[in-house]
Design goal:
- By secondary structure, this protein is of the alpha+beta class.
- The chain contains seven helices and four strands.
- It is 50% helix and 15% strand.
- It has a four-stranded antiparallel sheet, sandwiched between helices.
- The longest helix has 17 residues.
Length: 187
């Protein structure tokens, strides 16, 4: 099954406030006393047999996710390879590859196969902004044409240049607002 991705700004201050209560609820499996408005909808959506980490992950998306979402289809790895081949794209591609494959800043009490799978702190997000700025400054056009070979059949639906423009705008706003960056995946 293909994975779909979504990037969004992440409010670390909200996590700091929620963390002790969510860890306690995770450890006991009892989310009733959290006094969080979204909890009933989340529990209903996940079902009675939901793992506590999945409930915590969903709550973090709901309570710490800020602003717009930048979606990406299953072609995200190909987009990162494209970015790696662009002038000044290596550093940004490395940060994004780490974000989606190594679970940065993910803790056991909200680790799951879907939902939030990677988080960047405020300073890491600012670094990503710098790397994307360097790439963007050097990019001559929004999209690099695909050569006339078979690879043109495997280009993701949205052009990579346009996707990274949207991601840059999100990262720039997150940095300006003092937020980190989260990536979530769905299968």
């Amino acid at each position: 099954m293909a994975r779909e991705w979504a990037f969004f700004a992440f409010d670390w201050g909200a996590l700091t406030e929620l963390e002790p209560r969510l860890i306690a609820a995770h450890d006991t499996g009892n989310f009733d006393g959290l006094n969080i408005e979204a909890i009933d909808d989340i529990l209903e959506g996940l079902g009675d047999d939901a793992h506590p980490a999945d409930v915590c992950n969903s709550l973090l998306i709901s309570m710490c996710g800020v602003g717009d979402v930048v979606p990406c289809d299953s072609g995200l790895p190909e987009r990162m390879n494209w970015l790696r081949r662009q002038p000044d794209g290596d550093d940004a591609a490395d940060v994004l590859a780490t974000l989606i494959t190594r679970e940065p800043n993910i803790q056991e009490w909200y680790r799951g196969e879907v939902g939030i799978v990677g988080l960047l702190g405020v300073h890491e997000t600012a670094d990503l902004r710098s790397f994307l700025s360097a790439y963007r400054a050097r990019r001559a056009s929004a999209d690099t044409p695909v050569s006339g070979n078979w690879s043109r059949w495997f280009v993701p639906k949205m052009e990579s240049g346009a996707f990274f423009d949207m991601l840059f705008d999100l990262v720039e706003k997150a940095t300006a607002d003092g937020h980190g960056l989260a990536v979530m995946c769905e299968e």
